[in-house]
Design a protein that fits this description.
The complex is a heterodimer of chains A (176) and B (343). Chain A is 77% helix and 0% strand. By secondary structure, chain A is mainly alpha-helical. Chain B is an alpha/beta fold and 343 residues long. Classes of the chains: A mainly alpha (176), B alpha/beta (343). The interface between A and B is large, with 51 and 44 residues.
């Protein structure tokens, strides 16, 4: 039962990342897509926890953090640091969903790390899939794959850590 | 995470997620489907080559040492650069900056400035140097970095040429196009600026190339398409004909109105960058101008073959043949009006 709920969070994260990235086409740049995808994942996290206000706050906070990180990253390291920063923002806003200190600490630390791992895996997976299929369109969407992978592992992390480490009665479909 | 209420809310949320999944799936499939055959526009159509004589494309090869004077002489033979002015007020100058190494690996600043001034003299109001090589996702490999390292970026801007250094990973800046005549059916993502530009003047160099054997007027357009297209082309370079066809498709997606080849020096034996096995042949002192990409490559390949014993024109027969079949020009130099002069 718990497994299926975690899968639901994972799928939601993947879709939020992928759909947010597509919606970013309205802004028309890698920055716009990154910010919207990250914000969509944060909103999905709040909605899955049945906390609409938190969803709004998390979405805005993540959008601001990702925007700043992207802009700073343009001159320092890489704009892709927007992803771990967005993961950190999501981890911090999800503290409101957790009761225990250990769960909070682990979530704040693990969310950006595992979210970034998901981003890298999604990106690499998309490139490999596209190259294997000789499809440059798919290869060119590697950041889209990264956004989906980030959403998948970020929400999976929040959900599973919530279930494992936060021994508080859970919402149906939420973390325990 | 708080305890939830009733089943209705749960059902509502689940339904929302399912709807979201459905929309996402539809958009995803629609997006990828568009790459599989639907809604992809054709390559841009351009007016006929304005530089012809008696129905034959005109190719001008000027030898000399004073670049502005060489360009002026070439312009006079072509009938004036103002012939291009009828197509628009602004011209894109497509340079080549595949490696941060000086001429003849990359397009030199003096050629860019001289061409810009010749075009402005012919009535153009604005000229913009374009190249898509690099990404802002890695600041050390930003698109303008290569141009800066070879001192082109600041120099041409100082001389009134605008610079557009495009990010080859910025997917939204590229437009998918396709020509039904291509044997490789996949579309090509060409930069929107090139797709929309009324006038493109290509500034190729004459170089050897590991995968293409030769790079000049056709191959330069690897720098006009998204990196993903280049990666897939390189991945298939061992497949007979694939790479040769693909580089022609990239050129088909751009179709410059004029090619101005800087052949004052040639990169021979190996390329496209300078390496221990490559050799620069100086003193060729020639520029080649032609509105026909295929004729340009056919002529410049002969020029290279004269200076590079490891190269033969037959090595690019497949490229030239395919480009001719697609109507990009003629590889038969007997069908080209060639004017060779010295100034």
């Amino acid at each position: 039962m718990k497994r299926s709920r975690a899968a639901f969070w994972s799928l939601s994260g993947l879709l939020a990342g992928a759909f947010g990235w597509l919606a970013g086409a309205l802004v028309g740049s890698n920055m716009g897509r990154t910010v919207l995808a990250a914000a969509a994942i944060a909103v999905a996290c709040g909605l899955l926890a049945r906390r609409p206000r938190l969803a709004v706050v998390a979405g805005l906070a993540t959008a601001v953090a990702a925007s700043l990180a992207f802009l700073i990253g343009r001159t320092w390291v890489t704009p892709l640091i927007a992803w771990p920063v967005a993961g950190l923002a999501i981890g911090l806003t999800s503290l409101a969903l957790l009761k225990r200190t250990r769960a909070r600490i682990v979530t704040v630390v693990a969310t950006p790390l595992l979210g970034s791992l998901g981003f890298v895996l999604g990106m690499v997976g998309t490139i490999f899939a596209g190259m294997a299929a000789n499809n440059a369109i798919v290869v060119g969407q590697f950041l889209w794959g990264g956004a989906a992978g980030f959403g998948l592992l970020t929400l999976t992390t929040v959900r599973i850590l919530g279930a494992r480490l936060d021994r508080v009665p859970v919402a149906t479909g939420g973390a325990s | 995470m708080s305890e939830s209420g009733g089943c209705d809310r749960r059902g509502f949320l689940r339904q929302m997620m399912e709807t979201g999944a459905g929309i996402s799936g539809a958009v995803l499939l629609g997006g990828l489907g568009s790459g599989c055959g639907m809604r992809i526009p054709g390559c841009k159509s351009v007016p006929p080559n304005p530089f012809v004589e008696g129905g034959r494309p005109l190719l001008v090869s000027i030898e000399g040492e004073d670049l502005p004077a060489m360009l002026k002489a070439a312009g006079e033979v072509l009938g004036g650069f103002d012939k291009l002015r009828a197509f628009g007020r602004e011209a894109i100058l497509k340079g080549s900056f595949v490696q941060p190494q000086p001429y003849p690996v990359t397009t030199p600043a003096d050629l860019i400035v001289a061409v810009s001034q010749a075009l402005k003299h012919g009535g153009f109001e604005r000229t913009t140097l374009f190249e898509a090589h690099g990404t802002r996702l890695v600041p050390a490999f930003a698109p303008e970095t290569g141009m800066r390292k070879v001192h082109v970026f600041d120099e041409v801007k100082r001389q009134g040429v605008e610079v557009l250094a495009a990010d080859f990973f910025e997917r939204d800046d590229f437009k998918l196009v396709r020509n039904p005549a291509w044997p490789i059916t996949s579309p090509v993502a060409v930069h929107r600026v090139l797709d929309e530009a009324p006038v493109i003047v290509s500034l190729p160099l004459v170089k050897r190339h590991g995968s293409a054997r030769f790079t000049c007027a056709l191959k330069i357009h690897f720098g006009s398409v998204a990196m993903a297209d280049r990666l897939v082309a390189h991945k298939n370079e061992k497949q007979p004909g694939y790479f040769d066809q693909r580089l022609v498709h990239f050129a088909d997606a751009v179709k410059p109105q004029l090619n101005i080849v800087d052949a004052r020096a040639l990169l021979t034996r190996s390329g496209p960058g300078l390496s221990a096995s490559s050799e620069i042949v100086r003193g060729v002192n020639r520029i080649v101008l032609c509105g026909d990409m295929v004729a340009t490559d056919a002529y410049c390949a002969r020029l290279l073959a004269r200076h590079d014993p490891t190269f033969a024109v037959e090595m690019i027969d497949r490229q030239l043949k395919h480009a001719s079949e697609l109507g990009l020009g003629t590889a038969d130099l007997d069908a080209v009006k060639i004017v060779e002069r010295r100034v």
